[in-house]
Amino acid sequence: MDIETNKIAGAALSTLLVVMGLNMIAGIVFAPHKPAVPGYDLPSAEPVAAAGAAAPVADEPIAVRLAKADAARGEKAIGACKACHTFEKGGANKIGPHLYDVYARPKAGVEGFAYSAAMKGKASEKWEAEQLDGFLKNPKAYMPGTIMAYAGMSRPDQRADVVAYLNKLADAPKPLPTP
Ligand code: HEC
User: Fold this and answer.
1) What lines the ligand 1 site, CB under 6 Å?
2) Residues near 14 by beta carbon (within 8 Å), at least 6 away in sequence
3) Most CB atoms closer than 10 Å: which of 29, 121, 143, 171?
4) pLDDT per residue over 39-73, tens digit each?
């Protein structure tokens, strides 16, 4: 091995040492902390979920939802109601009162139907958009004591579709609230 070869080998070796040294320094300077479990480096000092994240989002007002509602979709969403209600003109009462012309009808307004005391107690109110939306969302929460054994329709957009459909079941549909 001649002197030239030694020089080149020495240069290469010292370059390697410098690179390794820089790498170590960079490691100390830029990566002072390593995740306890690789790939799971979540900051534990911050709260994982912001306080508002889990809070339920309020439904859009029914008037806003009605502007986007579709009665035809509503008609398809009332399958479960048909176990207890009729929807056509002149339809009979079943387990529940007939629902033709229900929009803006007084609560407990069907002659001869055996309503609950809770429903009869609200007979001075009418089934307008807001009332229908609230009742269909969760009947028992909206009207404690109701005998309507239906869990509720959770989707706000779907309730608006159903309200739009119920409104159509009339000789002369009433105007719906607008945003
Ligand atoms: C298991 C039977 C049952 C199902 C399912 C049901 N209802 Fe009822 N519904 C009733 C009964 C019973 C009443 C009377 C409640 C009372 O007197 O407290 C009622 C009352 C109502 C009223 C008030 C009517 C009035 O004359 O005051 C509306 C509106 C209504 N239901 C709509 C619906 C819609 C829409 C659905 C489907 C999304 C539905 N119901 C599903 C049994 C049912």
Assistant:
1) 78, 80-81, 83-85, 95-97, 99, 102, 107-110, 115-116, 118-119, 127, 132, 136, 146-150, 153, 162
2) none
3) 143
4) 666 555 555 555 556 677 899 999 999 999 999 99
